[in-house]
Amino acid sequence: MIVIYGIKENLNPIKAKLSDVIHGCMQNVLGMPEDKRAHRFMPMDKADFYYPGGRTDAYTVIEINMMAGRKPETQKALIKAIFTNIEDQLGMAPVDVEIVIKEQAPYQWGFRGMTGDEVSDLKYTVNV
User: Fold this and answer.
1) Which InterPro entries has this protein been placed in (predicted)?
2) Looking at the DSSP assignment, which residues form a beta bridge with residue 104?
3) What angle in degrees, to the nearest 10, is found between the helix axes of 72-90 and 15-30?
4) Which residue, of 19, 34, 86, 92, has the greatest Cβ tally within 10 A?
5) H/E element holding 82?
6) Please, which residues have CB within 8 angstroms of residue 92's CB and are 6 or more apart in sequence?
């Protein structure tokens, strides 16, 4: 699951394209299937979204929650792909994008009535 935060006036107009960019990176780097897009957009009032100096109102935070198992080099490749593709396709400077990957053990995920460590029919590999 991916949660994206930003100032609503800047985030709302680009939501669909940003979702496409992020999911394309998830597919290319992690091998995620097309139908595994789980994005949650959190457009915020400017008064509720504090961010570091040196950023513009385009500042966007991308929080990627995933089951543990991806190698550090795979995670780094994902982060770099997202930065590159957001800049290339949306024109957002990397300084205005923050990406954090949060890993949880498979038993800490619950979906389709079971935990992640019980599922045996994923259409993608977690340990990449």
Assistant:
1) Tauto_MSAD, Tautomerase/MIF_sf
2) 67
3) 150
4) 86
5) helix 72-90
6) 58, 60, 86
Q: What does residue 35 show for φ and ψ, rounded to 5 degrees?
A: -85, 10
In the numeric block, which tokens belong to residue 69?
Answer: 């198992």
Q: How far is the C-alpha of 41 from the C-alpha of 33, rounded, in Å?
A: 20
The number of beta carbons lying within 10 Å of the beta carbon of residue 64 is: 21
User: Could you tell me which CATH number the domain at 2-115 has?
Assistant: 3.30.429.10
Judge if pTM exceeds 0.90. Answer: yes
The structural domains of the chain, with segments of one domain joined by +, span: 2-115
User: How far is 90 from 105, CA to CA, in rounded Å?
Assistant: 33
Residue at 94: amino acid letter = P
For 82-128, how does the pLDDT look when each residue is reduced to its tens digit (9 = 90+)?
A: 999 999 999 999 999 999 999 999 898 888 888 888 888 777 777 77
